[in-house]
Design goal:
The chain is of the alpha+beta class. The protein folds into two domains: 33 residues; 105 residues. The chain is 47% helix and 21% strand. It is built from five helices and six strands; from the N terminus they run βββββααβααα. The strands form two sheets. Strands 1-2-3 form a three-stranded antiparallel sheet, with no helix packed on it. Helix 1 crosses helix 2, helix 3 runs antiparallel to helix 4 and helix 4 runs antiparallel to helix 5. The radius of gyration is 21 Å and the shape is elongated. GO terms for molecular function: ATP binding; DNA binding; zinc ion binding. InterPro entries: ATP-cone_dom, NrdR-like_N, RNR_NrdR-like. Negatively regulates transcription of bacterial ribonucleotide reductase nrd genes and operons by binding to NrdR-boxes.
């Protein structure tokens, strides 16, 4: 591995450990030329996942879109970025593990809503209001009633 400081090609691994729930290997390295230390991450290279939009267009899956949507839904809630990132990782893992190389955008939206429902009810309603394009207060109230019924079933 090339040293980021002196650009020499020889380094040795000092420490290796699993990171990100086993999806990544974190390696601490030391350059044999200059002696400086640096960290590298090793991940499995994945085939690109394509999202099929509602109008039939296809685009490359971008986890940042899910992350940003969840961050917006959790705005002004007492939820850490670490928790949001972990939820996003779970969603991405589910998409990659259970779906094909082409995934309908509607399925991704349903998965995000399902995960948010158990994560934070207010964030779920905020996300649902945008995702389902609530036209009026009655559609908003219907969703609240469904959420309440779901909550009572869990008891």
């Amino acid at each position: 591995m090339k040293c980021p400081y002196c650009k020499q090609n020889d380094s040795r691994v000092i420490d290796s450990r699993s990171a990100d729930d086993g999806a990544t290997i974190r390696r601490r390295r030391e350059c044999t030329s200059c002696g400086r230390r640096f960290t590298t991450y090793e991940v499995v290279e994945r085939q690109p996942l394509m999202v099929v939009k509602n109008d039939g267009r296809r685009e490359v899956f971008k986890r940042e879109k899910i992350l940003n949507g969840i961050i917006r839904a959790c705005d002004k809630r007492d939820i850490s970025l670490e928790s949001i990132t972990s939820l996003t990782n779970d969603i991405e893992r589910d998409i990659r593990n259970t779906m094909e190389q082409e995934v309908p955008a509607s399925e991704i939206g349903k998965l995000v809503m399902s995960k948010l429902k158990n994560f934070d009810e207010v964030a779920y309603i905020r996300f649902a209001s945008v995702y389902r394009k609530f036209a009026d207060i009655s559609s908003f109230m219907e969703e609240l009633q469904e959420l309440q019924a779901h909550k009572e079933q869990e008891k």
